[in-house]
Amino acid sequence: MKFELKRVSGKSILFVMAAEAEYGPFLRSRIDPLMTGVGPVEAGIALTRAFAQLEAQDDLPDLVVSLGSAGSATLEQTEVYQVSSVSYRDMDASPLGFEKGRTPFLDLPATLELPLRIPAIAEASLSTGGNIVSGTDAYERIGTDMVDMETFAVLRACQIYGRPLIGLRGISDGQIELQRISDWTEYLHVIDRKLSYAVDGLFTALEDGVFWF
Fold first, then answer.
1. Domain that holds residue 202
2. How many CB atoms lie within 10 A of CB 100?
3. Where do the Nucleoside phosphorylase domain residues begin and end (predicted)?
4. At how many degrees (to 10) do helices 151-161 and 40-56 cross?
5. Three-class SS state of 141
6. 67 assigned to some structural domain
7. Is 137 contained in some domain?
8. Where are the alpha helices (DSSP H) in 104-208?
9. pLDDT, tens digit (0-9, with 9 covering 90-100), for 103-159
């Protein structure tokens, strides 16, 4: 498992990404993230394993940043948004009387807030799940600004280890029906560049003392 904590102004940051296709030259020049694989199961397993390794070395990160692409039918394509809240669209125990999105017997709401904010980056709500979302009707049924496949799982691992999380997502698709993988990858090179600027914004805010946790 290859990754490297980024150390800025006395803080250590673990960056987490899902797929090599999202990790372009701009991000490669700045960070060496943990690559989890696609989906909530792979993300949860990989990050928990990394946390266990870092805990054994007494080197848990001060902050985790989950970043990559997302889909949205309403947000501006290729723009980057930071996650204001995240929910888990796969969880539905409503036939047993539980609120949709709420995990039975777990004392957590269906929607979890992410309180940390990088200055000057727009915010959006996010839904995580194991399916590809395509089409206006599908997005309307979910009801959040954007969708991905990892952030909720990353957040839960962070909660177990007591680490704060920031989520950054660039909108790669959602305005048209997805029919092939190139519909997702077409603008990833643009998102790579814009995500790198968001990462720069985090570093600058830490160095200038206007962002702290």
1. 5-207
2. 12
3. 35-173
4. 30
5. helix
6. yes
7. yes
8. 136-142, 151-161, 182-185, 188-208
9. 899 889 999 999 999 999 999 999 999 988 877 788 888 889 999 999 999 999 999
